[in-house]
Design goal:
alpha/beta; 8 strands; eight-stranded parallel sheet; 392 residues; 11 helices; Arginase, Chain A
């Protein structure tokens, strides 16, 4: 039986844990899964939570250097830093069993890709995944193994001819871009806060693909302070035209929700409602351009109670085909769980009270608007490589 949504899950996913003072707290994933459960997402027809195996070394070596994998294993065993591989920095502290935890996250995303590719599920998710900064031979930006890039590499190994990757995390998806920068089979699109104001300092429109893959790396670098209207205007001006034109076999998305106004590590101003609108647009695009094949992962998100659980519960419900009404109240039991875990009052409803609207870019370019300038810079850089007029 084919499911509408398969969610990779086992309790061990919360073992990817850099310690109590680190912003990438695994409780955000725990609270997400519990909120989705108490709101009935996992009880819907066609939705299943599925166990999976961790990624083995052969799978990890599709993209990661063997010496790096060995270094991760050693660091997780000895708890000694290894600066040559980015292990033991403030962003990427060493923790016990680091390899096992990281390989499990990677296995969850590859399992999601496998479910979609084999037809076991139309859509598949790993909310603990989306570790898009990890590089072939180093940890970077809270990320040890690049699970979402490994899912793409696995799909290519199975015979996929074209994969479209859309990254809506507030930080540039630099690791995924790096791994496929010279591969014309993979279109990487990242919408993020400008590298002038945010880690990792990359992701300008001029980063547009290697000599054999010109135009397949797409970067929309948005100014700090961009809110729902500007973000959605940028998304619709760039993402759907390129993905439709590319005609991917599978749409893979990274759904970092750190673009929210409350996120402590960045400076965009989206609401949960704006993020929900993006999820609906990506769902529609998966059906329109990729035959419904959609692999989705989590990513960044550091407002642990107010934002991440609501955003990703909306994401899972959207992927299940049963979106949650914004005005829905959060369950009392879940509110109490959040209070016990983090001593914080949880949001009472699934909305920030916004009604996201945007003016389509095609209605006119305003050169005085920094968001419009960012959009146009990207379109001018990459649209011609796809045979699309950037001015239409």
């Amino acid at each position: 039986m084919s499911h509408s949504l398969q969610v990779s899950w086992q309790d061990g996913l919360t073992s990817y844990n850099f310690g109590p003072s680190h912003p990438l707290a695994p409780v955000r994933v725990e609270l997400t899964m519990e909120l989705a459960h108490t709101l009935g997402v996992f009880d819907l027809d066609g939705v299943v939570r599925a166990g999976f195996e961790p990624a083995d070394d052969d799978l990890l070596e599709l993209l990661h250097d063997r010496s790096y994998i060995s270094a991760v294993k050693e660091a997780g065993s000895t708890l000694r830093p290894n600066g040559a591989f980015g292990l033991g920095t403030p962003d990427n502290p060493v923790f016990a069993n680091m390899h096992d935890a990281s390989a499990l996250v990677a296995g969850g995303s590859v399992a999601a890709a496998r479910a979609v590719w084999t037809g076991a599920a139309e859509h598949a998710a790993n909310v603990a995944g989306g570790l898009h900064h990890a590089m072939p031979a180093s940890a970077w930006g809270f990320c040890v193994y690049n699970d979402i890039a490994l899912a793409i590499a696995w799909l290519l190994e199975q015979g996929a001819q074209r994969i479209a990757y859309v990254d809506v995390d507030v930080h540039h998806g630099d690791g995924v871009q790096t791994m496929f920068y010279d591969d014309p089979r993979v279109l990487t699109i990242s919408l993020h806060e400008s590298p002038r104001t945010l880690f990792p300092g990359t992701g300008m429109p001029s980063e547009s693909g290697g000599p054999r893959a010109e135009g397949t790396a797409v970067n929309v670098a948005l100014p700090a302070g961009t809110g729902d209207e500007g973000w959605l205007r940028a998304f619709h001006a760039v993402v759907p035209p390129l993905v439709r034109n590319f005609r991917p076999d599978v749409l893979v998305t990274q759904q970092g929700c750190d673009s929210h106004a409350l996120d402590p590590l960045a400076h965009l101003m989206l609401s949960v409602d704006g993020q929900r609108a993006a999820y609906a647009a990506l769902h529609e695009l998966a059906h329109e351009a990729a035959g419904g094949k959609w692999v989705l992962a989590g990513g960044g998100g550091y407002e642990l109670v107010q934002v991440v659980p609501r955003a990703w519960t909306h994401l899972l419900a959207e992927a299940a085909g049963r979106p949650i009404a914004p005005a829905t109240e959060t369950p009392k039991d879940w509110q109490e769980l959040a209070r016990r875990k983090l001593r914080e009052f949880a949001p009472l409803t699934m909305t920030d009270g916004r009604t996201p609207e945007y003016r389509p870019f095609e209605q006119g370019y305003d050169p005085a608007d920094p968001v419009d300038r960012a959009i146009q810079a990207t379109r001018v850089e990459v649209f011609p490589a796809h045979g699309i007029d950037p001015n239409l």
